[in-house]
Amino acid sequence: MIIIKSKREVELIREASRINALALEEIRPYIVPGVTTKELNDRIDAIVRREGGIPAELGYYDYPGSVCASVNEVILHGIPSKKKVLRDGDIITLDLVTRKNGYCGDSARTYEVGICGERQKRMIAIAEECFYNALALVKPGNRIGDISHAIEATAKAHGCSVVHDYTGHGIGTEMHEDPYIACYGVPGTGPVLREGMTICIEPMILEGKSAVRVLPDGWTVVSKDGKLTAHYENTVVVTSDGCEILTKL
Ligand code: MF3
Ligand code: CO
User: Fold this and answer.
1) Mean of pLDDT values over 34-49
2) Residues with CB under 6 A from ligand 1
3) Domains along the sequence of the chain with CATH
């Protein structure tokens, strides 16, 4: 069931989203060669709590981190670790959910570590392009399949593939609500967008083939071929004539 949010609820999601966006910007200067993903986790945790929020991923189905920290071939749910030291030329995705006053905001960015090559920069840019091409279709009357197709078409135009096993989603009092938003799909299909829907659009793209596997820790999702991955996500509200990104400053 898709929950249409009232103006008041959108403002609560906006506040959680603001904190999320702030944390993902404030962390930027700390993403340098030599830092561990645990150090980034702890800084993000502190920023979220300083702003009166709670890192909602911590303890979610027993997830052990305050943020997902996914390096290079890790596409999703990388667990922050003291042993994972970032190296020059890596790319890392931080995917964060903040809860405040019962409502959630969710976003992800992929960052360069030190000096990256063209391969890495390209992946980051394509994930963002997928998001914005999808966003352009978010308005009342359009359908979820329009969003999904735009993500897939953009990735494919660059010779990349999209993840099939994980999706974007609605958001509100729950981190994950209906509707689910795949990174591939058919235009004109799926639920119709309506004013007051709050959704997370999250292109998860792969440099190589779309196949992924979960490591024995039960969380870490990697590309099967070991090639690079990237992810770009925002929480978005559908307005009367279009949409607005909530997870930005
Ligand atoms: N933040 C992820 C999303 O974009 C969900 C992470 S689930 C967790 O939907 F358990 F790893 F936290
Ligand atoms: Co999400």
Assistant:
1) 99
2) 57, 60-61, 63, 68, 77, 95, 97, 106, 202, 233
3) 7-245 (3.90.230.10)
